[in-house]
Amino acid sequence: xxxxxxxxxxxxxxxxxxxxxxxxxxxxxxxxxxxxxxxxxxxxxxxxxxxxxxxxxxxxxxxxxxxxxxxxxxxxxxxxxxxxxxxxxxxxxxxxxxxxxxxxxxxxxxxxxxxxxxxxxxxxxxxxxxxxxxxxxxxxxxxxxxxxxxxxxxxxxxxxxxxxxxxxxx
Length: 170
Hints:
Order of helices and strands: HHEEEEHHEEH
Oligomer: single chain
Strand content: 15-25%
């Protein structure tokens, strides 16, 4: 067994990590040895769907005009998990993304600042710089698509490439 596996699972201080470790053989049988051990921090599906697996959250972003976006955030709970595990996952979600969550409050300010900054006339003649990790993308036979390291703007480049294609093709 993978000794660092329980450390990746949510709900520390509860039985959640033990429960996740106990079902890992089933997960591996279903997904295979590589995909069953992916430790995704965040992901996006163009154009408006986001997933944050570490806190069992998905989000759907709904544009509401040039200066407004409505974000629907959901906590996903394993249906067959014991109540204590489900409670630990939900508690972690609330701690991070609840109304007074540690990350939600901070990110809300970031979204507001980015929206107002993007509307600034000072950015009109400047290229968008998303080069962090450029050239470090790679492919593997075990997973589809192009991958990038944790600290990169690989996802952002893919988002803007797709957006540009949608905006310029007939």
